[in-house]
Amino acid sequence: MKRAIDGATEFRFVDELYNTPADSYIDLLERSGDVASVMLVGHNPAIEELFTTLVGMDVVNRTIPEGYPTSGLAVLDQDGNGEGWVLRDFLVG
């Protein structure tokens, strides 16, 4: 992945996120400051919990009714007021 992204992109591996609840991911997002983009890569159940927390159960039920798939990629944007999240795309590799 690092080869496909420009050299100005900062990569951080956060070991504490392995096997941790979604709240830890949310804390990381809140601490990320004013960066333009954040990519989180993780495992279930935390990633599915995070997705559900950010976009809500209605969106989850419409998008992935059978659960968050292996190699699933959710593309989210913060809404206009910076308080919530909007699903832009969902890809499965």
UniProtKB/TrEMBL annotation:
Superkingdom of source: Bacteria
Protein name, UniProt field: Phosphohistidine phosphatase
Organism: Ciceribacter naphthalenivorans
